[in-house]
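Hey, does this match?
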Amino acid sequence: MAAKKQKPYKLVIVESPAKAHTIEKFLGSGYKVEASNGHVRDLPKSQTGVDVENNFEPKYITIRGRGEVLDRLKREAKNAGQVLLATDPDREGEAISWHLAQVLGIDTSDKCRVEFNEITGKAVREAIGHPRPIDMKRVNAQQARRVLDRLVGYKLSPLLWVKIKKGLSAGRVQSVATRMIVDREEEIEAFIPEEYWDIFAHMRSGERKFKAGLVDDDLKKADIKGAGQAAAAVEKIRNAAFTVAQVKLAERRKHPQPPFTTPNLQQEASRKLGFTTAKTMQIAQQLYEGVDIKGEGAVGIISYIRTDSVRISDEAIGQVREFIAGRHGAEYLPEEPNVYKGRKHAQDAHEAIRPTDVSRRPEEVKGSLTKDQFNLYRLVYLRFVASQMTPALFDTETAILEGEGVKLRFYGEHMKFKGFTSVYEESTDEETESNETTLPGLAVGGKAEVLDITSEQRFTQPPPRYTEASLVHALEEKGIGRPSTYAPTISTIIARGYVLREKRKLYPAQLGQLVTQMMRDNFQDIVDVQFTAGLEDKLDRIEEDELPWRQVIGEFYGPFEKTLQKAEQTIEKVKVADEVSDETCELCGAPLLYKMGRFGRFLACSRFPECRATKAIQIEIDAPCPKCGAPLLEKTSRRGRKFFGCKRYPECDFVSWDRPVGEKCPNCGSFMTLKENKSGRWHLCGNESCRHKTEAPEDTIEE
């Protein structure tokens, strides 16, 4: 009997074409790599898709538009000797692999699943050589999340349509995030400022000058409430002769932060680069899946981007320690690797986000990356290198000066060794005053002369409004959501019109306040932070095989259904008034109202449907019109292309596809515009017959 013909190749299935393109070059001719284009099956959009009576059995269907993809994958799988499912290494990736296995008839207990934390030749080949069965614990945790979110969304949303406004939606995590922003706004509105005064003496001891603050007998900052108290304190200081009573010299060590988790990366990219959470994840995905590097081809240059772990592999630590010693010197390398402790609820399934090869320095690959890719890669790279460096060292001096019953306190510090800060420093949402100064070197018993006294009236401040960065931090701290959910959650609440983003601050819209109030009054658990965090903990326990996923759904759904039935009977319909703008309709003169559409907010005539006039919301840019000096507006053409035009149109007809920058061409005096692409960014003269070009200043990353 003739030997059975060997099938020609192994089929590897990943989510995206970009990932397939990168992986294909690492595998030989015996492999074929195809993309599923993300999820292939999901719950139907036209119905709840969860059979509550049948123990919450989900009803999965092929996602619209994925039929051709699945047909292609079925053909390839039929001809392949083995099918390997190489979707992302997390719960969602595991679920996608499970759905593919269901469709392609693959036994989930077969060794069909491969996962890698980075898309490099070594990591991919290692994973391909060690497939495993599909992890049903991860799949069930993801199914539980999907079913929970579907039940909340599809049961609550119709209620919002009837009681508030058609087209609204409610979500398990988005409702909590919206509530947090609403709660913060209420705190701000209820806040009553309290007056206090800062009092400092500018002093000299010998040849040394320094500034000391007024303190009480317990050496805490003096509690000065009003102008009268401040004036009295100033007079006491002016009439006193001061002696140095105490001096303490010490060393302060500032340690580096761990390498990035997903939330940390989103926060830092917001602070340092001005990225939204969605943009951060979009750019990070590109860097993870693979970019074409000159001399290398397509390669993933950062590790997996959805993680809440600060752990780093021994191999990566060994590489970065060797790099630090060689490039920065032995004094910048700690004796033992720095080890970081993750937060309480971290899953720790993957490493922290890091460069896949520390020898691939940002400056060396800059020409192969877009500006945004370069800046984000540089952020990841510098943070990772700094995380394994020695602390920064500061000499500190604390002194207490006394005179006539008055006490002053001086504190200063001076950096004596940069350590990791020579590479990277973490930023914060709120700026803090630096204590970096030349230390005066005071001696106990020495005399100090008062040169000047400053008294500053201040008022306590309300808590700051959330930025995307601080909201992500708060959600993470409270255990709400997971690394993969933060960006879509924030995008959703802004797109739905519940939250507005202005100058990076998040404000609750009227609609968000109304929906939150209704949810507070009737669905307290859904918008309760602790309850939602508890659900997240149960989802983790499902993955750890400590809880059956259907039991978790059942414990949630019983009380939820009763609350829903009661709410349908008791909630009164709320009339939502549209927000009136300060602009009028160009057709009929009626006021224009702010409306929310599928592409965001826009202006519409208040006489609709009699008048159907609409208008885009105008965005002013930081440059004057080169023709008349009026503000310039960022606009969008009918085909969706961005352009820039004068606010005084039609009186002034200036228009430009490129963004003016407010500078004049040094060659001809015309206006200059900003141009940027993969090769860089520059200022270009708007005069077609000149086109003088100069290098644009780079947006820098603080180091």
The first strand starts at residue 10 and ends at 14. The chain has 17 helices and 29 strands. The chain has a mean pLDDT of 89. The radius of gyration is 31 Å.
